[in-house]
Request: fold
Amino acid sequence: AALAMPSTASDARERRARASAMSSASSPKRRSTLTLPRRDAVTRNTNKLQLPGWVSMPNSALASCLAVLATNPMDRAKTIMQLPGVGASWGKNMREVTMNMVKKEGALRGLYRGLPVAMVRESSKNVFRIGLFLPVLKVIHTDDDNPAPAWKRFMAGCLSGGIGAVSSNPFDLIKTRMQVPAAMCEYENGMVAFKKICAKEGWKTLYKGVGASVMRDMLGSSVNLTVQSIASEALVRNMILSPGSPVLGALSGVLSAAASVAVMQPIDTSRAYVYLKPHIHKDTIRAFRYIVLREGPLALYKGSRAHFFRTAPHYAAMFALLEMITGGERKVLLSRNKNVLENVHMFDALSKDKRIRLASMVQMKHFKAGEQIIGAGDETPGEMYIMTRGCVKIDQANKKGKKGKNTEDQGSDVIHSGGYFGESYMFSSEASNETVTAVNDVTLMAVPREAYETCRKGEFASATLFDDGFDDPSKEIGMAWRRLRYERTLAKIPVFADLGSYERAMVVKQAKRFSFKPGEKIIRQGEVADKFYVILKGSAVSTKSDGDVDHVAPGSKIPPDRIMRNFSQGQYFGELALLTGQPRLATIVANDSLEVLAIDRDVLKSLRETLPTLEDEIIRNLRRFDHMDSFTTMSIA
Reply:
């Protein structure tokens, strides 16, 4: 541990140089010195463990199918409210319509009429609409270092939404006809409806209104998926919510629903007129014109409130389920990766937390039979490989024979599943002297050298720093609220004012909140110092000695002549703990009901690898505002 030492001439010159540099760089608004580390930390710690690209399609289909179970009653209420000349008799709002559905048709039949078709419709639609969104976005946005701009997300949403609309249009039409009041419906179930429509009206009827569906879903999906993806990434990037959290999916889903309803509702209303009165309204444009001229422009938003209250819960449930499904799959992959790493003796020296961290940074690679993985003379790949499937052949170039002559083929090594090769690449940058070829179809786990070095040298005092939010949604909500609230409090404190919002969120996520009653001691003179405190609410006072407090009767105030300093909301104390590690110099007592945020040395120790300059930034600010120039580092080693 680096402690405060007596000043020397060289130390004095160094401090003067630092002070000069600080004063020359000072300005009313200073930029954070953590810009580059912040970017690296965001990339490294908020990046999700990558799943195979194809799983997004079945995941989307399953999540949307399950979400219908919660939203079908509201979906049917919206359909009834949009019926020309009929909706008004069922109620003025969604609540009245829902109550009448239960009263007239029964709870189960009334609320869940058309459910099987609705589930098939949602699955057939979102398997493409959501399932293809990220794959398409990756094709048109190849820059992995920067987030995709909104217009590229809009284009990806248009394409995937259009494909989903074509796929689901037949089921959409059947669902709409099945969800009308039972007295008006001529079909017993979805299969009967499909057969009768094809027999009486022809199969082309199933695609009646497909143009409006494509236009609606291209517009709706582009807005919905653009807002949802941007909101989700922003919440994760700013450490408000965690990847895999259902709360993350629900919140981003509600935000996207509000944006998409305004775009989709006019088309939705016009399309319902076409579906239900095809002999009057030949296409959506004519229905749109009819509604505007006969009923007024506001009639296009007929049922918009019901639409939102149906859409918002549906998107919230769907994206929450999707986050839970993908979060669960990432946990399975993480567990598999960890088990593979445990069988490689090279990683035995890593702690459990470091192996878990390394397991989240590896990549799976696939090679076909006969494909060359590494060529002799190639630049070092900078990673080692662990076999998980198949086998490879390793030929070493210039391998010496028995007589010391260089030969090109003195035999080959064959590595099977469970083995590994390329461990020398983790320590050397020299060109490869071996050729590795896949004997059959091969799957490898690639461990990057940079990832290994990061985990080997990094310090992880807390394994919960970047926990997935999959396990406890209620805890995730509380943590999100606390980070938002306390991050703003820290922003008002000079010591933390120069830090970016990300850095403050990193500190807040690991800090702890304590409450003290009036007269209760917070720190005692002479005790071991391990943290400092920021006052969130209330006030505190410091006394000249510990005895000044012990001799005061309960409920009485400390005499003013024994008070050294008063602390109010937003102020901090105990900062010497982070500077010297020396015992406490004073006793501090709560003056009234007090809430504090405690930041200890273990928090900053766990953040050293993530934000290497955070420690220096805080210590520089402590010297700047407390005039403690004799201290040059924190005693937290």
